[in-house]
Amino acid sequence: MTSITALFKQVMKTFFDMQPKTFFESELGEALAITKEPSKLKAPLKLSDLYFIEANSNDEQKFELIKQALTIYDMEEELMIKYKESN
Questions:
Q1: What is the C-alpha separation between 18 and 34, in angstroms, rounded?
Q2: 14-71, pLDDT tens digit by residue?
Q3: How many domains does the chain have?
Q4: CB under 8 Å to 16, separation ≥6 — which residues?
Q5: Which of 81 and 57 is assigned the larger pLDDT?
Q6: Structural domain includes residue 80
Q7: Is residue 66 part of a domain?
Q8: Dihedral sign from CA coordinates of 41, 46, 3, 18
Q9: Which domain holds residue 15?
Q10: Which residue in 64, 78, 74 sits closest to 22, CA to CA?
Q11: pLDDT over threshold 70, residue 1
């Protein structure tokens, strides 16, 4: 993947598919503003047929949410990110 946004979408959808209950039982759901009503969000990201999360955040915020999700799901060691040097 070449963008934090694409990584954010993939990680959140994967975790939601894996164990949706965690989104509702942890601070992750609140941080992501999970809802059944996409009209309540500025940039809704569809997680499932029923649920959406807010995707309107900058790359730094998305990266922090990814790290938070990895910690909550106890998978910090499962994702490696290789940074590309900017020219």
A1: 16
A2: 999 999 999 999 999 999 999 999 999 999 999 999 999 999 999 999 999 999 999 9
A3: 1
A4: 23, 47, 48, 51
A5: 57
A6: no
A7: yes
A8: positive
A9: 4-72
A10: 74
A11: no
Backbone phi and psi for residue 10, each to the nearest 5 degrees, phi listed first: -65, -45
C-alpha 40 chain-centroid distance: 17
Residue with tokens 């990201």: 45
Provide the 3-class DSSP secondary structure of residue 60: helix
Alpha helices in the chain (DSSP H): 4-18, 21-25, 27-32, 59-72
Distance between CA atoms of residues 32 and 53, nearest Å: 5
Residue 83 lies in a domain: no
Residue 82 placed within a domain: no
Residues 6+ apart with CB under 8 A from 5: 55, 59, 62
Q: Which residues pair with 51 in a beta bridge?
A: none
Cα gap 40→22, rounded to integer Å? 21
